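Model it.
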Amino acid sequence: MPGGSAPDESTHRVAFTAQLLSTPSAAAWRTTCREVEQLGYVGISVSDHFGAQFAPVIALAAAASATERVTLGFNVLANDFRHPALLAKELTTLDVLSDGRVLAGLGAGWMHADYVETGMAFDKASVRIGRLIEAVSVLRGLWTGEPFSFAGEHYRIAGLVNRPRPVRSGGLPLLLGGGAERMLTTAGALADVVGIALDNRSGLAGAPAASASSTAASTRDKLTWIRAGAAAAGRPMPPVSVRVLTVQITNQRRRAATELGRAFGLDAASLLESPHALVGTTEQIVDDLLARRADYGFDRYVVSQAVVHDLAPVVAALAAAS
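Modeled.
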């Protein structure tokens, strides 16, 4: 069953989280985190790969000390990289140190290179998702703060008590992210928030199948899977967060969409319709976002560190319109 309540990141408006990678120094990281908060973003998130980025939990601990209001989230932690008992403790510690601002985010792991380069077994998706489902049970059991035992196929816990307790009595809210049917059906059944990503079953970043899954039609399929998972679990559909993959502020909307579309294997019209793309003037992008809220119900988006300042006028315009 779902745990903590999803943070009200949207406050009934279209709202943005900035996904940060790294900075050259500690001072620059603190400055960047403060700027994100001052620009009106509602959250800071980090991803989880073995590339040139900060380690996620440590990075958000530093972000917590530099900020006061933003949600601190993971988009998403790869379940295979950490035992859930250790992760439960790390995240409740971060929750206490941030005064209850953590949005836990978890996925099954998808990037093949992460596994090859570290010598971890890249099991088939059904095994990785099965591990993730057990990990969710372990996390939520430990977040009660009571003695917890679990005997599953992948994890065993014997009377463990997790300390510190989460700030919120229901435990941490949990985002589950993915882009393929089984993962999104699982997320619909279990998550407090569902993060919609591309279909990365190939394990390769930028694969054609992943780009093809960014279209409006693919997005509707993903929402159908989430609804099906929620219905099977006898619960309402959870809120959805969308990862934005391309942003360009321009008064040459069609030309920019044509050029950007080539990278995604999409024509200009398909790129402009994609919820993963924001292209046009500030006014055009605001209109697109409001239309997508009406059409899909989307009011939570995650954007890259590189476009935080470019998108600031859109963030401000949407805040003023709420």
